[in-house]
Amino acid sequence: MKAIHLDANASRVVMVEEKNSVLLQFKGNHLWGAGEHFDRVEFLSHPRKNEVEEVFTRQGVHTYLPQPLFLSDEYAFLVQSDRVFTIESQGNEDGIQLALKGDFSADDALVIASGIPKETLGKLLSYLGGVVLPPAWVFGEWASANRWRSEQDVLEALEAARLHGFPISVLVVEAWSDESTFYTFGEEQGLWPDPKQLVQKLNEQGVHFMLWQCPVFKALEAGRRDARHEQDLSYIQEHSLAVLNKDGTPYTIPEGHWFAGSMVPDFTNPETREWWFSKRKYLLDMGVSGFKTDGGECILSDEVRFHDGSTGKEMRNRYPQSYIEAYQEFIGPERITFSRAGYLGAQGSMLFWAGDQLSQWSELQAVLKAGLSAAISGIFWWGFDIGGFAGPLPSGELYLRGYELGSLVPVMQWHSEPVGGQFSEVMKSEELINDRSPWHMAQKHGAEVLSITRRYSTMRKDLRWYLVREAEASRETLQPMMRPMFYEFGSTYSDIYDQYLLGSSLLVAPILEEGQRTRTVALPDGHWYDLFTGMTISGPCTIEREYPIGRIGIFINVQDSEFNRLKNSMATLRCCKEES
Question: Does 433 have pLDDT greater than 80?
Fold first, then answer.
């Protein structure tokens, strides 16, 4: 593996190559990054595996979105390899000893930069070509559901949002297609009588309409027939548009995995791209704003072959990224993709969300770690399913704490699973109507849910100018919107991962534990306006604050050039009565 030094000091890292491993020795006390990780942000002495994996809920040490990019106190590293490998590390008296263990290819490289994390992340992202800036409308509030199965469902949901005072900017519909081709609006029983008119109507209302996708040629359920689907499969096999086994037969997703038995499109093949997107061009013509590019974690054999000569060894990680990039080439820069899996290059791939979590407190704690680790790995435009996605509905308290946090990350989204529950054969919901909208949660848990969520939703709308401003600055400076305390203020804060900066001027200290009503907040150097007390506090200092449901720690940097506008944009939270 060759070494590429981005500056003179980077050559101070000692690098020794052995069979199937690269050993590094360098000065430092911490390791951060390596992609979106749910278990911890700092991983010194905790192995990391650089592998795209599909894990439904409780991801733990697994990740949909690894990035072979990680930071230390004085150095940062980018492993330019598509291969699966592990990072093993330990501290010693000389600093950090680290081993990259894997079957690397002769073309792989290790890029090294020196400096503090804010400097080195920028250097590595600049080396990779920078980050792409999504359109401003993505920083509004998103509503998403698998349970909307008709035009009537969509219109009823939007009308409910309007009546209850929720300014939805983006609507993500999953159950829109015929569930066999995944490119045709469902035609059964007139559920979608005029999709083009529907999309145009929503666009006129300022609502951006997005459709779910998954990269499979689906294996239909036993006994189910679809003539168009059968014709597609025949064409695909005749023209070798799918990923192939070593013997030339189509690869199929193994049993025990999502869409088992399905073939997988080979997006390294120009003919596959042309065929696949010719079936979906009419969706762009009718005005959809993008696609939820779900899945992609489906290459589970090292032996499979791709049109460009790649094998499963490279494409286990690379495949979801090639899938996203194919969609982005198809849709152009004005539309977006929204993905859960990806790999190196994701910094140029629009938006991501944290995948599937249960409605549990431990999962809320995990997604904050995921968002912070993703951000310092170059994944700037990120969000999660507010209140969780799977299993029984969240408690009112968990939903509200999730909503508070979810309104103050780059992508704000609540999402509902199918009626009866996702994977209902193993995790059936107790609810007949599995709806995680604020108004339905209020029916279950009381009017307080609606009043609090509406305030945070209004705040999000009023704050959008700031989010757009900070996103533009992030693109220019190559600094993430979500910033762990250590990243912005130094290693003094390297043990604090339950608060963060959103942009340059908002410090957010969420509540992440059941029954918690007080918390400690570490304020760094500077002058910080406490949104809920109206006090300005000079840091560095540590304070204790009470946060009943409906309130979390929000502190505004008084030095912001638009401080008064920023304070007024959050007035909907500050001026309302305290909830019990």
Answer: no
User: Could you tell me the two tokens for 175?
Assistant: 């159950």
CATH architecture of 140-215+271-465: Alpha-Beta Barrel (3.20)
Query: Could you give the percent of the chain with pLDDT greater than 70?
Result: 96
CA torsion angle for 332, 336, 340, 345 (degrees, to 10)? Answer: 40
Closest CA to 412 of 378, 458, 379, 374: 458
Pairwise CA distance, residues 579 & 404, whole Å: 13
Whether the ω angle into residue 167 lies within 30 degrees of 0, i.e. cis, is: no
**Mean pLDDT, all residues of the chain:** 95
Residue 83, CB-side half-sphere exposure with 13 Å CA sphere: 18
Question: In 93-109, which positions are buried (b, 16+ CB within 10 angstroms) versus exposed (e)?
Answer: eebbebbbbbebeeebe
Start-end of CATH 2.60.40.1180 domains in the chain? 477-574
Distance CA 267, CA 2 (A): 29
In order of 170, 182, 291, 328, 400, the CA distances from 332 in angstroms are 18, 21, 12, 6, 36
Burial of 16 (0-12, 13-18, 19+ CB in 10 A): exposed
In this structure, whether the domain defined by 477-574 belongs to CATH 3.90.70.10 is answered with no
Fill in the amino acid letter for 519.
R
Third-level CATH fold of 2-127:
Immunoglobulin-like (2.60.40)
User: Residue 207 — φ and ψ, nearest 5°?
Assistant: -105, 125
**Which residues are the active-site residues?**
294, 297, 356
Domain with CATH 2.60.40.1760 in the chain: 2-127
Q: Give SS3 for 568.
A: helix
Q: CA 267, CA 242: separation in Å to the nearest integer? A: 8
Q: Where in the chain is the domain with CATH 3.20.20.80?
A: 140-215+271-465
- Between vectors from CA 338 to CA 357 and to CA 301, what angle results, nearest 5°? 75
Element (H, E) at 35: strand 31-35
CA dist 404 and 550 (Å) reads: 7
Query: The dihedral of CA 551, 554, 555, 560: what is its sign?
Result: negative
Work out the average pLDDT over 313-321: 97
Residue 359: phi and psi, rounded to 5, are -85, 75
What average pLDDT does this structure show over 56-63? 96
Distances from the Cα of 486 to the Cα of 26, 30, 263, 498, 557, angstroms:
19, 10, 45, 12, 17
3-state SS track over 337-381: EEECCCCCCHHHCCEEECCCCECCHHHHHHHHHHHHHHHCCCCCC
- pTM to 2 decimal places: 0.96
pLDDT at 86 over 50: yes
d(CA 475, CA 481) in angstroms, rounded, equals 10
Give tens-digit pLDDT for 356-385.
Answer: 999 999 999 999 999 999 999 999 999 999
